[in-house]
Amino acid sequence: MKRFICFFVFVTFCVICSDAKYFETNCDLVHELRKQKFPEDRMRDWVCLVNSESARHTDAIGGPNKNGSRDYGLFQINDHFWCSNSTKPGKSCQVTCADLITDDITKASICAHKIFRRQGFPAWHGWSQRCQGDLPDISNC
């Protein structure tokens, strides 16, 4: 019981002190993705992916997945392959998972670009399930 209480207090503290950001609209997200050099010709796919994976929250943590891994941040980047759950940056993106859940999405964007170069959009379950057809309209962004 003490462990549960300590865990609850820790999680509550992390949420209160979090430097997370919520992109209120798709256009807010588009403007940030442009700053992070995401290509215009696939922007609708990226917006759909982010909506499907994290609902535009930079502090989203998903899982546990079937293999016990978790997904982090705006792009829901998996800790099994891409980020380290320690304080030392590691795995394929050479980042900590904590680096992926802040309001500065630079490291998360660099990692997402790397994942895309290696595996394309099918690397993300949310894109595979929801973004192959009806993509969001961002023409006014």
UniProtKB/TrEMBL annotation:
It catalyses: Hydrolysis of (1->4)-beta-linkages between N-acetylmuramic acid and N-acetyl-D-glucosamine residues in a peptidoglycan and between N-acetyl-D-glucosamine residues in chitodextrins. Keywords: Antimicrobial, Bacteriolytic enzyme, Disulfide bond, Glycosidase, Hydrolase, Signal. Residues 93-111 form the Glycosyl hydrolases family 22 (GH22) domain. Its EC number is 3.2.1.17. GO terms for molecular function: lysozyme activity. It is an enzyme of class 3 (hydrolase). Residues 1-20 form the signal peptide. InterPro entries: Glyco_hydro_22 (IPR001916), Glyco_hydro_22_CS (IPR019799), Lysozyme-like_dom_sf (IPR023346). It comes from the Eukaryota. GO terms for biological process: defense response to bacterium; killing of cells of another organism. Belongs to the glycosyl hydrolase 22 family. This is Lysozyme.
